[in-house]
Amino acid sequence: MAKALDGVRILDFTHVQSGPTCTQLLAWLGADVIKVERAGAGDITREQLRDIPGVDSLYFTMLNHNKRSITLDAKNPKGKQVLERLVKHCDVLVENFAPGALDRMGFTWERIQQLNPRMIVASVKGFGPGPYQDCKVYENVAQCAGGSASTTGFDDGPPLVTGAQIGDSGTGLHLALGIVAALYQRMSTGRGQKVLAAMQDGVLNLCRVKLRDQQRLARTGVMQEYPQYPHGQFGSAVPRAGNASGGGQPGWIIKCKGWEKDPNAYLYFIAQAPVWKEICKVIGKEEWITDPDYATPDARLPRLLQVFATVEAWTMTKTKFEAMAELNQHDIPCGPILSMEELAAEPSLRATGTVVEVDHPQRGKYLTVGNPIKMSDSLTEVMRSPLLGEHTQEVLTELGLSDSEIRTLRAEKVI
Ligand code: CAO
Question: What is this structure's pTM?
């Protein structure tokens, strides 16, 4: 079956997580992604967090599916010549080097434009233009600088980072959308363009509801759905809200049967206003349906923690799955806290290709997360990540280099 991005060639200069997330997605959508790595070493994640000595790590394999790998010393004059051919051959160059690294290699925007005016140059950087533009940035720095950490955790504890890689993978997703839009615009302009996704910006975009709350707080001095209300103090900045819902329907994480031993025996429960009657019936508090202290969302706001404690007394008599099944019968929104162990074994995720088993020549079978975007006319087949330089000969031949030229480059350690 044809794929959405068939015919699009990506010169993939990405490493670690943010950029590779982007190019992996483009590869799943059908682009030919040629990953350029340094001979002998490659993407640093090949050797990070290894679970099998000498074998590409899961960190690397899970971020580099469906790509081809070539090795090339981009600072060597002969390597630069090969890179020039690649720039002419490809539609998009994606990179997430530290600021200025591409320029230092000699591949400025102007130079790339000379070589290929249709080339789209897409970059992840830690920060956009401003005081921090020259800083190197990793995931948790972005979470902290983008507003996530200050708004995550409990009010009486320190800021927290989250396990969801919103700085790296989140920014990679933003960049992928920018690239696809630039490809679309190029159809009418015939020109490439620069696409920048800064990690701070990406995190802030994902935290936009907290900037909403910042302005609500500035205007009213209080946020009634936050756990600080009514007994705690509000300062001038949006506080950490524990497990309160980010939206208009109050929610909280509550214990289920077995919580004493199982750290994930919990349920996210939403006290959605339209099903308040059903909630009261299920938990055996029918008097709350008409009690003026509980009957309306506004009346419940100062009593939310007590409401959740009462619901919890009910959920603690059931497993999270029993509670979810029963609540869903009444259209009461809730969700079990699922561990990675449970997600890996979940048959429905295997059936849809969201969790996929992949075979790797060195490590054997492993699980990965497949393409979360499902398209009816562009199906994703997850292919294992490439070994370092596995496609060097193949790609250089496609670029028009002869076997003897390739042998010379190899002998001179350019590839
Ligand atoms: N041939 C020759 N040189 C190469 C090369 C190749 N194929 N590939 C990379 N290099 C060189 C770069 O040109 C750079 O050289 P200079 O420093 O002399 O210009 C050097 O390798 C190191 O690149 P780097 O500075 O990007 O790598 P780092 O490990 O020092 O920093 C990171 C890593 C992630 C902090 C930095 O790249 C960064 O801030 N990137 C932007 C933000 C980002 O994407 N962060 C998320 C990373 S995932 O958590």
Answer: 0.96
CA distance 321 to 116: 56
* Tokens standing for residue 412: 């001179």
How many CB atoms neighbour CB 74 within 10 A?
19
Structure tokens at 115: 């070589």
Residue 341's CB: how many other CB atoms inside 10 A? 9
Task: Indicate if 103 belongs to the active site.
Answer: no
Contact 60, 32 (CB under 8 A): no
User: CA triplet 406, 411, 413: central angle to 5 degrees?
Assistant: 95
The pLDDT tens digits for 132-171 are 999 999 999 999 999 999 999 999 999 999 999 999 999 9
Catalytic residue among 56, 168, 201, 359: 168
CA distance 216 to 213: 5
Q: How remote is the CA of residue 410 from the centroid of ligand 1, in Å?
A: 23
The predicted-structure confidence for 94-108, as pLDDT tens digits, reads as follows 999 999 999 999 999
Phi, psi of 89 (to 5 degrees): -80, -25
Cα pseudo-dihedral 67, 365, 377, 190, rounded to 10: -10
